[in-house]
Design goal:
With about 300 residues, the protein is α/β, with parallel strands linked by helices. It has twelve helices and 15 strands.
Length: about 300
């Protein structure tokens, strides 16, 4: 089963063999024996690619459950699973990198037997097919095949470089955004119409994008250079405020509200290493119904300048 899972995750016999320190022939024999045992073809093979069949996808999910159960059984002997070990594969949004690394640093100091493989990407991944133990995602809500545990709220901050605000003025109401140049993030899809709310009042405004990108860092650099107003989740906006950008319309909330979630494939077969990472993230971030980054985003200008100097 371990060989089968590794071939499925790596998409090839040769790459799986290298990782398992086995010969490709031995890997092929393992898969042939497994297919004979379950009486189904698990992979479609061509000279250029290896892909799971429908039976293979179903079997992969069950194999992961079984292997996780074996791992949990071993961990239960090791102080009831309080000292996890092995490889932990984690994927997270690029913009959440700093927050994730901070929590991971604390986690890895506490659990030195765990090796962490962190992949930063804004695309939605298939946790089972791509072999990830856990994913962090920023979204208004999540429904689907995975367990989604909310970790924190992350509000949208609207930021402007001081030079841009001197040239174009500071928006006083949401309607003013329609006359400003803005920076738009395009994943999962671009939004050029935004809804802002204050109390019971809601305003819908269509933005005039100066730049669109699926890379938050590119938008941040352009925003800091004064190209336009930057719309960025607070989890990533703290660095922009430290760099000198100023928040505007802070008494208005951009809808829908975003949250940071932890996703994992199965609640029943949650390993100790994943469970303890989620606990570490919850401890690091605090109340899952609050935005832990927002106070730093809307802090007083003198405090922001002091942080920038620091």
């Amino acid at each position: 089963m371990k060989v089968f899972v590794r071939v499925a995750q790596r998409g090839g016999f040769a790459s799986a063999a290298r990782e398992l320190v086995m010969s490709p022939a031995a890997v092929t024999k393992h898969i042939a024996a497994l297919e004979s045992r379950v009486r189904a073809r698990l992979f479609d093979r061509t000279t250029r690619s290896v892909s799971l069949t429908e039976a293979g996808r179903l079997y992969l999910e069950r194999c992961l459950e079984c292997l996780q159960a074996f791992e949990d059984a071993d961990a239960s002997v090791n102080q009831l699973g309080d000292k996890p070990g092995g490889l932990l594969r984690l994927t997270a949004p690029v913009d959440a990198g700093a927050t994730v690394v901070s929590a991971l640093s604390r986690y890895m100091k506490s659990y030195a037997d765990v090796t962490v493989d962190l992949q930063l990407s804004n695309r939605a991944v298939d946790l089972v097919d791509e072999g990830f133990d856990i994913a962090l995602r920023i979204a208004p809500s999540l429904t689907g095949q995975y367990v989604a545990r909310p970790l924190a709220v992350t509000r949208i901050a609207i930021l402007g470089a001081p030079g841009y605000l001197r040239r174009h003025g500071r928006p006083a109401r949401p309607e003013d955004l329609a006359t400003h140049r803005t920076m738009i993030f395009t994943e999962p899809r671009p939004r050029d119409e935004w809804v802002l709310q204050r109390g019971r009042e809601q305003v819908r405004v269509r933005l005039k994008p100066a730049m669109l990108s699926n890379n938050g860092r590119a938008l941040q650099e352009a925003g800091r250079a004064g190209v336009g107003l930057l719309m960025m989740p607070s989890i990533a906006a703290v660095d922009d405020v430290v760099a000198g950008m100023e928040p505007v319309l802070v008494d208005w909330a951009v809808l829908p509200e975003l949250r940071l979630y932890a996703l994992y494939p199965h609640r029943r077969f949650l390993s100790a290493k994943v469970r303890l990472l989620v606990e570490t993230l919850r401890s690091e971030l605090g109340d899952p119904e609050a935005d832990p980054w927002w106070p730093a985003v809307v802090g007083r200008p003198a405090t922001r300048r002091a942080r920038a100097r620091g």
